[in-house]
Amino acid sequence: MTNLLWPGDQRAGALMTDRALLTSMVAVESAWLAALADAGLAQVDQSDTALHHFVDARDCDMLAAAAEDGGNPVIALVALLRQRAAPGVAPWIHRGLTSQDVVDTGLMLALQDVVKQLKTQLAEQISDLSQLAVQHRGTPMVARTLTQHAAPTTFGAKAARWLDGVADAYRRLAALSIPAQFGGAVGTWSATVELATLRPDGTEPAAVAARLTQGAATTLGLDHRRPWHTTRTPITAAADALVGCSDCWGRIAADVLILTRPEIAELREPVSGQRGGSSSMPHKRNPVLSVLIRRAAITAPPLAATLHTAAALADDERPDGAWHAEWDTLRSLARRAVVAGSQCTELLAGLEVDAANMRRNLDAADVLGEQRVIAELAGRPPSPTFLGAVDHLIDASVRDAQRLLDGV
């Protein structure tokens, strides 16, 4: 995909593009057909259940245009698969499914790849931030509250707070359930149960349907869950986890933007080619990575709010517009998270720390007022160990983050 109005969109690559989503939806149809064949409910050889070779990227435009007729792309996709499949296979394709099953499960399958990419990014950031925190545990700087000089701290302590936020985001993603959706027309397995009544061995039809959904989910590598047609928790949980990523990156970017101001000059973004240049002011070097990360942090919460609103308006057994509002919203949120994650990874890996300017700014500020007041109460001079528990806090953050990556 390309997007002139979202600089850096290419960093998300093929994730959740039309082609990726088409591949995911065909994978859903194939997994379900294989489950039917395995249960003896479809007169199809397992070798004929792979449907991926019936469609390719050239079909995307046609399917996108045809989607308007039915309100979703699955109707035209099923017709295309049945048209291109062998006569003995075609009637069994999509049998027992509904469009929502394929769209929802296809989105979850594509989202799974996004989550894997984000976890990789976050793990790299945890490593870089741990290194920054330890390396600069003794690099003094002035802490600021409400934009004003407040008290002494170290850059290691600031990096440790960034680290805590990134670790929280990783933890949310790692705990995220990404389930398949197989419920049939109204979420009751109605068609699947009807198919199961054809079995000659008298197996309870509902038990057959349950095994089918479990088997198809396992084939796709997704979690198994009862139908969630109008219980949109998987969507909103994913949205919240994605926004959690953008939140922690936005917080880092906000600090970097402040500390790269020429009058402060305590940090610098990594240099890369012409990045940061201006069309009219050749002397400028703008902190573009941080600007674009902050852009994502500003726009992510409204996208998640749209998904929460859609969940709250998911009426009947298939919502009339609320469900449809989710698809591209989730795609935008997911791709933008990957882009911002990539930009933040690059930012942290090459962040330049000006320890001399940090020391200079601290020396020029009177930030020992709190210590003096407390010392006066005790009737003694201020303690030289004015940095308090910085080392303890840094070590705790780094230790907890490493334990998280180690799965402890």
UniProtKB/TrEMBL annotation:
A Pfam family this chain is assigned to: Lyase_1
InterPro entries per record: Fumarate_lyase_CS, Fumarate_lyase_fam, Fumarate_lyase_N, L-Aspartase-like
GO molecular function: isomerase activity; lyase activity
Residues that span the membrane, as ranges: none
Keyword Transport (UniProt): no
Keywords, in A-Z order: Isomerase, Lyase
Keyword Lyase carried by entry: yes
Family: Belongs to the class-II fumarase/aspartase family.
UniProt protein name: 3-carboxy-cis,cis-muconate cycloisomerase
UniProt organism field: Mycobacterium asiaticum
